[in-house]
Amino acid sequence: TGTTQGTINNGGRIGAFVLLLPYIEQQALAQQIATGGVMTAINGTTPYPGGGPVPWDGNFKPWCTNLPALICPSEAGQKLVNLGTIARTNYCFSVGDSISQNQQALVRGLFGVNSRFSFADIMDGTSNTVALSERAIGLQSTQLRGGIAQNVSNMNNNPATCMATGIGLNYNTGGGVVTAAWAGMRWPDGTVPYVGFSTVLPPNSPSCVVTTWDGDWGISSTSSFHPGGALASMADGSVRFISEAIDTGNISAPEVTGGPSMYGVWGMMGSKYGTEAITGVAP
Questions:
Q1: Residue 46: which residues within 8 A CB-CB, separation 6 or more?
Q2: Which residues of the chain have a pLDDT value below 50?
Q3: What is the DSSP string of the chain?
Q4: Cα(80)–Cα(109) distance, rounded to whole angstroms?
Q5: For residue range 32-69, what is the model confidence (pLDDT) as tens digits?
Q6: Which of 17, 204, 208, 215 allows an S-S link to 149, with CB 3.0 to 4.6 Å?
Q7: Do 98 and 214 form a contact (C-beta atoms < 8 A)?
Q8: CA distances from 161 to 145, 157, 206 (A)
Q9: For the chain, first and last CA: distance in Å?
Q10: What's the pLDDT at 277?
Q11: Which of 176, 175, 179 has its CA nearest to residue 144?
């Protein structure tokens, strides 16, 4: 924990994949991260803390370890990276229909900063609540798949503001939209632009952040190179295909803080609260 950049702590930025390593046959890597201590880094010998350094420290070998289990076979971009570059992921965790993501612990989805939820907290039932989905790796910042628009304000009051930054498969850079390529670029990072998604805008829609800081809040949309949508895992482990045409209700409505989602079937699938009926989702 902590906020100082450097090797004395990880800046509070470590994500869920680090905790999941023992469950994807990466126990040795998990132990190396948890133990820290003095280890031979890429560029010399460095004392690292238990829990690792900040997730953009390319001198920390575990962060640069390629994990094939985190890469979708349909990914069109570069899948593996060279030592010294933070390894990547195609998979991301749901903050639900919440928009004020990174600064908000009590998100309506299953994953929030410094928070934990049990199956008992999923009032809609595990088969009705989405847990993970896909995001194309951000190799082209100007493309909706993997890119993110910066300095987009008013999203919590009107998510359609984010939707308007896109034209076709790209961002409207001719209209002054400034973009970055963050999606999936750091598998150990816990912030939403890298390993999270919102159930507000449909798959392959724009993603937006309110400033130029990757730790700030915004909307991150799931994406993939599958035709017409993206795959998602529900909390019970079942996998469903989410169509780009899924009902998203009123995306001009302000962010919901209680009660049923305003963002249609997709928003309801992201919310763990209430007892919203889920219909029209293909298995």
A1: 7, 38, 39, 59, 60
A2: 1-3, 279-283
A3: --S--STT--TT-B-HHHHHGGGGT-HHHHHHHHH-EEEEETTEEEEE-TT-S-TT-TTSGGGG---GGGS-TT--S-----TTS----SEEEE-TT-SB-TT-SS-SSS--TT----GGG-TT-GGGSEEEEE----S-TTBTTTEEEES---TTT-THHHHTTEETTEE-GGGT-EEEE-TTS-TTB-SHHHHEE-SSSPTT---EESSS-TTS-EE-----SSTTEEEEEETTS-EEEEETT-----TTSPPP-SSS-SSHHHHHHH--STT----S---
A4: 30
A5: 898 876 665 566 666 788 888 889 888 888 998 999 89
A6: 208
A7: no
A8: 18, 9, 10
A9: 39
A10: 52
A11: 179
Q: Which residues of 241-274 are buried (b: 16+ CB within 10 A; e: fewer)?
A: bbbeebebbebebebbeeebbbbbbbbbbbbbbe
Tokens for 244?
């780009």
Joined tokens for residue 242: 């989410």
How confident is the model at residue 88, as a pLDDT?
Answer: 93
Amino acid identity for residue 225 in this structure:
F
Please give the structure tokens belonging to residue 221: 């949309």
Query: Encoding tokens for residue 245?
Result: 């045409």
